[in-house]
Amino acid sequence: MRRRDLVFAGVVLPLLGDLLWEPAAVGADAPPETVLPDGAIFDAATVRQLARQLAQKPYKAPDVSLPDALKNLTYDQYRMIRFIPEKALWRGENLPFQAQFFHRGFYYDNRVDVFQVDQGKSVRIHYSPSLFSFGEVAPPDPQVDLGFAGFRLHAPINRPDYFDEVAVFLGASYFRAVAKNQVYGLSSRGLGINTGDAKGEQFPFFKSFWIERPQPGTASIVVHALLDCESAAGAYRFTIRPGGTTVFDVEMVLYPRTQITQAGIASLTSMFLFDANDRRGVDDFRPAVHDSDGLMIHNGHGEQLWRPLTNPLDLQVSTFADVNPRGFGLLQRQRDFRIYEDLEAHYERRPSLWIEPIGDWGDGQVELIEIPSKEEIHDNIVAFWRPREPLREKGEYQFTYRMHWGAENPRSIPLAQVITTRVGAGPRPDTRLFVLDLAGETLKNLDATSGNIRGVVSAGTGKLDNIVAQPNPEAGGWRLSFELAPEKNNLVELRSQLKRDQEPLSEVWVYRWTP
Q1: Number of C-alpha atoms within 13 angstroms, CB side, residue 231?
Q2: Distance in angstroms between the alpha carbons of the first and the last residue of the chain
């Protein structure tokens, strides 16, 4: 799973700040295939029509042809190719957003065409080597239109006089964003197909983008994207609003070329290396290393689930069947620097990402895939919604959802949350001790003698013992602990909740223990 390699090289390039766009003075050759001619009328239905037409044609692999000097760049060589700060789109025009572009090369060999939509018309943003500085890398022929690898958006999110990077679209159909005072962490992608399948995964890619010119004083920007792969074509509309929480409103329409039985909608990818629940084989000065520490689900029955992440010895797939989910996401709940002690990575500043479906999504399941990993540079966590019914050939499928990138969960949570999951050796041979710390409004000033406050714990296999629920004054909440004797089982599904009599006080904690 090398997704992080696809995106990492771009986002670790120095943030270039305020940027400027000037039309490229280049007599470049026309690209091999023109999606829309310059000046073509562009409206809300344009990309849908292009996707519909594309799906009716045989699949054509993306253009990966590059000059020899760019074919085999090392990571360090690719970093030398930098967009020139003075040539960003809309710089100096007193607009709330600016854009800069990524050069092709290294892992980014797919050609991406980018257009600006201005006054209802589509105009190509022409590639030119003059937009970039190349360091020790030989610049390509200016007469050849190479297109771009992707782009990133900047806005004054942290202070009014500086345009910070707020979102990036780079590599296949991957994209990611940050909120105020955050750094990049987990990613999303337009579509997953056959994720986790031993037969191999497809990686759909965005082949063209249309960026609508923002109006002065507006707080949002609209990006359209055309997706393609062997199994489908798709049209996407992203309305992006950076801020204390950065919000994407996503409208996607898929047109399958073939039947898709394993579609991943609103697919999220993240990294979990270790934490207090999983330190197997860890020799590291840091207490924890991860972009996300758990999967949260608010299912269609109104139940709130929290599933701490693990870094397993073997690939693990967990499914949570549901009807019309209210939301799900990969969250980073622990926001204290002392949890991580990393002055470079600042994992406490990585965004959570919450998916809020708009409308009914029907029957399906939230799927979580955990992949073994020994390094923090690899994304080994994937979560997405999988419809129960296949996406039929020549059909049309629409999914609309809202993405919340930020430090806080976007929805009000009436129940206490599991803040920390700790797992270690139990007091008896061949047992494991689980210690859950919980906090939230329902636990504040909770009198331990008021009613039957108890931890309700169940296990699919094995044996449970010594279930204890008690106040935790050090954390201002409660602590729930129990022992598990796996009894030679290699997998135990666990579930727990703090209750007062029959009244739920906390979300439902679910966990898969493996040796």
Answers
A1: 18
A2: 23
Q: Which of 406, 435, 456 is the last residue of a domain?
A: 406
Q: What is the CATH number of the domain that holds 454?
A: 2.60.40.10
Number of domains in the chain: 2
Beta strand pairing call for 232-241 and 132-133 = unpaired
In a domain, 412, yes or no: no
Is the separation of the CB atoms in 304 and 298 below 8 Å? yes
How many CB atoms are closer than 10 A to CB 181?
A: 12
- Rounded to whole angstroms, how far apart are CA atoms 12 and 184? 9
Residue 370 C-beta-side C-alpha neighbours within 13 Å: 25
Nearest to 268 by CA among 235, 237, 294: 294
Q: What is the domain extent for residue 175?
A: 3-23+34-385+393-406
What is the C-alpha separation between 506 and 443, in angstroms, rounded?
Answer: 9
**Cβ(269)–Cβ(85) under 8 Å?**
no
Tokens of 436: 């859950």
Query: pTM for the full model?
Result: 0.92
Say which DSSP state 25 is in: -
Phi/psi of residue 80, nearest 5 degrees: -70, -25
**Per-residue pLDDT reduced to its tens digit, 332-367:** 999 999 999 999 999 999 999 999 999 999 999 999
- Identify the three-state secondary structure at position 333: coil
